[in-house]
Amino acid sequence: MTLPADLREAAALFAERDRVLVATDFDGVLAPLVLDPSTSAPLPGTIEDLRALHGYPQTWAAVVSGRDLATLTELTGLGDSSVTRIGSHGAESSEAADDAGGTELTDAQREHLTALTAELEDLCAGLSEGVYLEHKPSAVVLHTRRMADEPAAEAEQAALEVAARHTGLHVLHGKQVVEMSVLQADKGTALVALRDAVGATHVAYFGDDVTDEHAFSALGDDDLTVKVGDGETAARFRVAGPQDAAQALSLLRTLRAAATTATDPLAM
């Protein structure tokens, strides 16, 4: 694998910036997509790269995912780390002061989520085998990854029709998923909030799904945005798959280590 020359040049420039945040999606970027999401695992070295980056001066790292926060923490193994985890497309964060991770619902929202879930369970019972629901603190997600293309498309359309009958929902239609949340959240808003909280001047973000476009669009022309895989994108750069993303992350680690060692008085 060889990363595009323009991406390497941009990475070298990014590594020299004063205060940087390196963030990435999980599924489809750190971890290749699999039929059973519970078996997803990050590629070797990727989590170590994030931990290392987070330890460098004026450098922060984060994983931003549609997964709920607890599952994301378990799959990444970052529970003992200060690397930020942002789950449920921004609705949950390991940086939240309360144990709920920022997802405390009102009574009305809980009732709405319960009713929505029941309706989707009835829908799934009438669909072909392979469709299933994932339950999150503030959302319910219909997955079609285990289905053939045609029934998967029909199931997703049916889920969108259910969503259309409910007001106040935040709907995300991604790769083989339809997520319906009773909280308004997206990766772009969450990433910008984290950037501002740590005071980073530049952000690198890797994503593969349509939900990552919120993050790409929220960042600026001087940020390092990388689309992993096919599809239209607002990202500045593109790589073919997770293996390439892992290589780019490793490159950032190497470049940032060199840049911060040269200026870090503790390293002298």
UniProtKB/TrEMBL annotation:
InterPro entries for this protein: HAD-like_sf (IPR036412), HAD_sf (IPR023214), OTSB-like (IPR044651), Trehalose_PPase (IPR003337)
Report residue spans for region: Disordered: 81-103
What reactions does this protein catalyze?
Answer: alpha,alpha-trehalose 6-phosphate + H2O = alpha,alpha-trehalose + phosphate
Pfam families the record matches: Trehalose_PPase
What are the EC numbers? Answer: 3.1.3.12
* Origin superkingdom: Bacteria
Q: Which UniProt keyword terms apply here?
A: Hydrolase, Magnesium, Metal-binding
Instruction: Give a yes or no for keyword Cell membrane in this entry.
Output: no
Q: In which pathway does it act?
A: Glycan biosynthesis; trehalose biosynthesis
Q: Which cofactor names does the annotation list? A: Mg(2+)
**Sequence similarity:** Belongs to the trehalose phosphatase family.
Q: What is the role of the protein in this entry? A: Removes the phosphate from trehalose 6-phosphate to produce free trehalose.
Which NCBIfam families would you find in this protein's record? T6PP
What name has this protein been given in UniProt? Trehalose 6-phosphate phosphatase
